[in-house]
Design brief:
Elements: H1 3-35, H2 45-50, H3 65-97, H4 109-130, H5 137-155, H6 169-199, H7 215-249, H8 257-279, H9 284-307
Length: about 325
């Protein structure tokens, strides 16, 4: 296949996975709408505490058409999400193969967003069974779909060669770890946000919040996800990042805006984990700190590229490529 054919395949795959995510979102919305008015009986508390979508159990209501419809559309939505993630992966491969020479698909903000949303969706699919994350489906799928639309409409760049500073195997190591941590922190941020919403009505027995796991379960899930993401982010920011910076600019630390904000993000999440282990911070305070962390994370990715004119990580303006073919790296 030619480079142009690979780029076309990538663009078509992005459109196709967007359609799949949209259909998955519709399926999950039907699932939740079928359950919104059904009470959660005491028999279902164990399911909520386990982290799954609690449905009415016992009696004829449990066998009613609303519950059966919810089960069917829930499975359909998850299947469509798996298909969407698979097509999403094809879009990434096609993007990398479209460059000459072939390269990793994260040379600008469009490609980083494409990769980051893939990791968020992949983590959801992988952790779906382990942590019973059915209740997160509409939020995760909706977020991924929205970010993909933003990437296609506002961030798209044609495929271009990497600049000399980016043409390094340290880029692969650095950005892979950064993308994995970004996906984990984003997923953890979603759990923390849902925790704060449910904390306002913890005793509700009907509606969507009743089918979200109990507050201690949400708190525990958020902690585990952040505990995974933090060492990966540490590896990206404090180890591979400085090594790549030294190779590219002959200095391990340049006080670049992205470097500074990446370190700020590291400090916030370090404080989150430290506060939980030493000061006993749990629940609302921990959730607020986690949301502050994800805010600094995404400001580093998007805000610095828009507002900073001095960052060495910004090799072109957002949404365009310079005449010499340079690009804007996400992190």
């Amino acid at each position: 296949m030619t480079d142009a054919a690979w780029e076309t395949l990538s663009n078509q795959a992005v459109a196709a996975c967007g359609v799949m995510y949209f259909l998955a979102l519709l399926a999950h919305l039907v699932e939740w709408s079928s359950l919104r008015n059904l009470p959660v009986h005491a028999e279902s508390v164990s399911a909520a505490e386990a982290g799954s979508v609690a449905v009415v159990t016992g009696g004829p209501v449990a066998d009613g058409p609303a519950v059966r419809r919810a089960e069917v559309f829930g499975r359909l939505g998850f299947l469509l999400t798996i298909i969407a993630v698979s097509v999403h992966a094809i879009a990434l491969v096609g993007r990398g193969m479209a460059a000459d020479p072939n390269r990793v698909p994260w040379g600008n903000m469009y490609e980083f967003t494409l990769s980051g949303t893939f990791v968020v969706a992949l983590f959801y699919v992988v952790l779906h069974g382990r942590f019973a994350l059915q209740w997160m489906a509409p939020v995760v799928v909706g977020l991924v779909l929205t970010l993909l639309m933003v990437a296609v409409i506002w961030l798209y760049d044609p495929v271009a060669p990497l600049t000399e500073a980016l043409n390094s195997y340290w880029l692969v190591i650095h950005v892979v770890s950064a993308i994995l941590a970004t996906g984990a922190f984003t997923l953890g941020g979603i759990v923390s946000a849902v925790y704060l919403i449910k904390a306002r009505r913890p005793d509700t027995t009907t509606g969507l919040l009743a089918r979200v796991p109990a507050l201690p379960v949400l708190d525990r899930i958020a902690y585990r996800i952040h505990a995974f993401g933090f060492p990966v982010w540490t590896f990206a920011v404090l180890i591979t990042g400085p090594v790549w910076a030294h190779q590219a600019w002959s200095s391990y630390w340049n006080w670049d805006p992205k470097e500074v904000w990446a370190f700020i993000t590291w400090v916030v999440y370090a404080a989150y984990l430290h506060a939980r282990s030493t000061a006993g911070w749990k629940g609302r305070n921990a959730a607020l700190l986690a949301l502050l962390g994800v805010a600094t994370l995404w400001f580093n990715f998007i805000g610095i590229n828009y507002f900073s004119t001095t960052s060495q990580h910004s090799y072109a303006s957002v949404g365009e490529v310079q005449d010499e073919g340079s690009s804007s790296v996400g992190l």
